[in-house]
Amino acid sequence: MADFKEIKFFGEQQLPMEMHKVRIIQKLNLLPIDERVKSITEAGNNTFLLKNKNVFLDMLTDSGTNAMSDKQLAAMMTADDSYAGSETFYRLEAKIREIFGTKHFLPAHQGRACESLLAQILIERPDQIVPMNYHFTTTKAHISRFGAEVLEIIIDEGLEAKSDKPFKGDINLDALRYIIKTRKDDIAFVRIEAGTNLIGGQPVSMQNYREVSKICHDAGLIFVVDASLLADNLYFIKTREAEYKDVPIVEIMREIGRLSDIIYFSARKLGCARGGGICLNRDDLAEKLRELVPLYEGFLTYGGMSVREMEALTVGLDETLDMDMISQAPQFINHMVDELSALNIPVVTPAGGLGCHLNAKEILSHLSQDRYPAGALASALYIISGIRGMERGTISEQRNPDGTEPFANMELLRLALPRRVFTLSQVKYTIDRVNWLYQNRELVGGLKFTEEPKILRFFFGRLAPDSNWQEKLVEKFKADFGESL
Ligand code: F0G
After folding, report:
1. Which residues contact 348 (CB under 8 A, 6 or more apart)?
2. Using CB atoms within 10 A of its CB, is residue 1 exposed (0-12), middle (13-18) or buried (19+)?
3. Distance from the CA of 191 to the CA of which of 76, 132, 279, 326 falls in 20 to 30 A?
């Protein structure tokens, strides 16, 4: 799809256009505001603990929630159900080889399983370090489980919420060179996360992949790419990096395959299915992984995935080569970011992949980070709209080994747009309610933990408002919206 073209509108406003139609639907329900308050209270003000039946627009994540195509669903019916040697697996393996050009494919039940396996084979001593553009929650948890330390060396603009830098996920090359110069023997591996999740789904340039690969290989270091959010990143390489404008997506994927030693991914994101896997050329590392996959995941021809999911993934990966498919979410996100920016509402710019990210640190600048502004904004938005976002700020960080609480670099509320799921009117509703909340932001107070798990506390932690601010917010909503849901 080298010749990707946009549809131009006759009127002034250019709108994103879906290149698919809806053929199966799921009914939605928007509870009245008093019931929404009850639901979020029962959920300990943690949107992970909400029941989906109480959610109107589920913008928690794109993980396992992307809409599947007719071809994916059809392929699921052709799955070859067998424990060992399934034809379904060989079809998936061949597709991976075609798109990444890699020799070995080790299946796993999802992205974090790949991270667990990789940490086991690549981390040799507890005092090692893992330089990367930025951590992801599960990545860091697995690396620190083995005592190693994550070193974030993203370019400075990566941590500036507002910027016009097209590739905010790039690694700072000088920082990488310096770490190699001073601590080369301590480096377990170097990692790039495509579509850098926690800084707002921000992409990495091909130029950066090339340079990081060269630096790593000159120093004899293993270069790992987390391709979970690669679909969005491919779209940005093609639209923001001039020399790739006419290069087919599959060529870009193969180039990433050639540059890296290991590619792993969550198929809940890449490929719009469920599952995951590790792709690599190195026989020695593949050999080590082959010993662990049957132990933790399942036999080598399924690795914890159902055969139906593997069929859906094979087709989903093929569809990722189509710009009509991978452009949909970034274009909707861009629309949301443009509209919210026009209303002067602080959002992460430029628009990235994965979702629209509200800058809670600025929106709720009256809240200090120990009152969890991103968590408070997530709770408030659910109350006033039924929309479920995800806190990506201090609550998503883990405590330091000495028990102190590190404040996140960014306090974001992520409104994920799973691929092909929401319509433009649902996006417009979201913009409208975020705007109302912004106008009434001084009513939003903080949160405090009532139950705080030790590991990945954001998943199960429970919090309570630190004053009666939620009652006041509901009062104002009723005064402004009357009987409206
Ligand atoms: N790497 C990245 C960049 C991710 O975004 C995720 C998951 C994983 C690894 C782990 O994959 O969920 O299949 O085990 N991100 C989800 C999210 C959970 O909502 O952002 P997984």
Report:
1. 161, 162, 199, 200, 202, 337, 356, 357, 359, 410, 412
2. middle
3. 326
Find out whether the peptide bond into 107 is cis, omega within 30 degrees of 0: no
Give the pLDDT score at 1.
43
Structural element, H or E, at residue 391:
strand 390-392
The pLDDT value recorded for residue 2 is 45
Class of domain 33-62+325-481: alpha beta
Kindly give the parts of the chain with pLDDT less than 70.
Answer: 1-3
> What kind of fold does domain 70-322 have according to CATH?
Aspartate Aminotransferase; domain 2 (3.40.640)
From 89, 100, 134, 136, active-site residue: 136
Whole-model pTM? 0.96
User: What burial class does residue 163 get, using C-beta atoms within 10 Å of its C-beta: 0-12 exposed, 13-18 middle, 19+ buried?
Assistant: middle
- Distance (angstroms) between ligand 1 centre and the Cα of 342 equals 31
Location of each CATH 3.40.640.10 domain in the chain: 70-322
Selection from 266, 197, 260, 199 nearest residue 227 by Cα:
266
- Going by alpha carbons, the residue nearest to atom 16 of ligand 1 is 63
Rounded CA-CA distance 440/318 in Å is 45
Q: Active-site residue 458, yes or no?
A: yes
Question: Is the distance from CB of 313 to CB of 271 less than 8 angstroms?
Answer: yes
Phi, psi of 180 (to 5 degrees): -65, -40
Q: For residue 421, what are its two tokens?
A: 């799921």
CA 151, 123, 216, 192 dihedral sign is negative
Determine whether the shortest distance from the Cβ of 111 to ligand 1 is under 6 A. Answer: yes
